[in-house]
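Practice set, problem 2.
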Amino acid sequence: MGRVRTFDEAEVLEAATNRFWENGFAGTSVDDVLQVTGLGKGSLYAVFGGKRQLFSRVFDGYCKRVGYAFEHALAGPDATAARRIRALLRNTAKRGRDRVAGRPCLLAKTTSEMAAHDSDIAAQARATLLEMVVALRSALAQAQDAGDVGPDVDADKGAHLLFVTMRGIEALSQAGVGTAILRDAAEAALEAVTLS
């Protein structure tokens, strides 16, 4: 008869997520994982397969949550699509360094650290980012249908501009760039797609 688990998997994943978020994958040792999760080495390998496999679970869960939150922020009727897009861009600029206790987006941090040499991470990150672009493009098309964005605006290019601006704002906020610059960038992007 196998041993009964004496840990809560959700708590383990949360603790591991926080440690990986703070230190990155390379900066988090197996001992760090064991310390913050309370797992024994045998449980780590038997249940999760090791540090890399645990990180995959953490990253996959984070990508799903951030993708859902992004889509949820943009979901709604055509009549309010322009308002939702404006709010998303402006809130991104407004949050600045206060985002999630000052931590960078785990998706961005992991992509920067690992995507160049880990094809699985690169594929997961790319899929999540593209889902976000699709949600933004859909909202922009809704705003066009409602008459809030002109028919001459290319919804694909507009969504790309808005998305890249958002991700740039998030990255620059972590470098300490002032909120006035971030706000100006958001407003310029909104103006470019006639959403100002």
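Problem 2, part (b): a different protein.
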Amino acid sequence: MFIWCRDHRLHHRYSDTDGDPHNSKRGFFFCHMGWLMHKKHPYVIELGRRIDMSDMQSDWMVMFQKKYYYPLYLLLAIFIPMYVPLYFFGEHWWHSLLVCYFLRYVFSLHGTWFVNSIAHLYGTRPYDKNLQPVESWFVSVVTLGEGWHNYHHAFPWDYKAAELSYFINHSATFIEFLDMIGLAYDLKTASPAMVLNRIARTGDGSHYLLGDEETRKAVTAWGPLHPLNPTYNSTLQPPSAVLKPEGLPLFHEKDVLKLKISRRSASTA
């Protein structure tokens, strides 16, 4: 958890540059799984040391998991998944190992890596055409809602990681259930006005409500043109990415400014 959180914060701040651990500009294989087989880029190492992790370091549960990662991994990822079919269903230990550990692990890993690869390469950018990440129905189906990636990078602090929590977004639904029973709280989300401002200001025109037909037609795919096709892609050129020491902002001042102006106008009307 601690290492993932550090790398994920680095990924958002320096997205799709040499400061990004899984920089999609280096190709599909690299951002999907090759980044785990390479030495880290020097910028990733240098900039990773600057990421503030004080909140994670003050969380006893995160630090407990970090300290006892290997025994916890053996217990939770290997022993328990293998033991259940062995004890309750009389399964052979070898079959249990192959299916409940290896097959499950390979499937979950590639599903997770799709967010770094497909969801950065094949899709549309209705919220911010200046960001490399895209909206991918295919990845959302595989990952239970983590494929609405253009929105997630436009509003990285939104718990839904998508504009809608009820459309192929079981992750958000689960978080809302935890909030309902008191196990999650202080959920942060972008207001509808802020989302609309961002779509109007930086969207590529493909938004399902506010887009235009001309842009929606500017879509291509390998094979059938279907939203669940993993190669579903906009013909618009992907944006360039420039590495800046300060990284990308958590939010855009223009969105907040427009929101303040609209609120002020509504209060004086």
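Answer key, part (b): Residues 124-269 form one domain. The two ends are 49 Å apart (CA to CA).
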